Amino acid sequence: MDKEKILSELTYKAVRSSGAGGQNVNKVSSKVVLSFDLAHSAALTDDEKMLAGSNLAPKLTNDKILVLHCDEDRSRLRNKEIVTRRFLRIIDTALKVQKTRKATKVPKAVIKKRIENKRRQSEIKQSRRKPDY
């Protein structure tokens, strides 16, 4: 994965932020929307696209486009930096291959301990009963 190549494929759009903020919100477009077309990316190999597509499936649109937005700061430049950093972190985690989980056997000591506890609990409950004459 070449970060410079991926960063060159990003498209940014500035839009007006929502919510309260007075006159500044109504006249300044400080919210930044980042779009990344995963399906048509030249920076990723086909295997990386498949891996990222499966890991990012809930975050992708139907056209395999990742859309992120940021309106945390009043500055458009700062919001662009934040959303770009967030994008790189998401892509890094999406391209990591998960280790396969190895099923382990339950140790004999754990089984023995469980059975011993069951036996002890059974004896406690039997001692509470009324005697049978």
From TrEMBL:
PROSITE patterns attached to this UniProt entry: RF_PROK_I
Family to which this protein belongs: Belongs to the prokaryotic/mitochondrial release factor family.
Transmembrane segments: none
Protein name (database record): Aminoacyl-tRNA hydrolase
InterPro entries recorded: Pep_chain_release_fac_I (IPR000352), Pep_chain_release_fac_I_sf (IPR045853)
Region (Disordered): 112-133
Feature: compositional bias, Basic and acidic residues: 118-133
Highest taxon above the source species: Bacteria
Gene3D superfamilies: 3.30.160.20
GO MF, one annotated term: ribosome binding
Keywords, comma-separated and alphabetical: Hydrolase
Protein species of origin: Flavobacterium cyanobacteriorum
GO biological process: rescue of stalled ribosome
NCBIfam families in the cross-refs: PRK09256.1
Residues covered by the Prokaryotic-type class I peptide chain release factors domain: 16-32
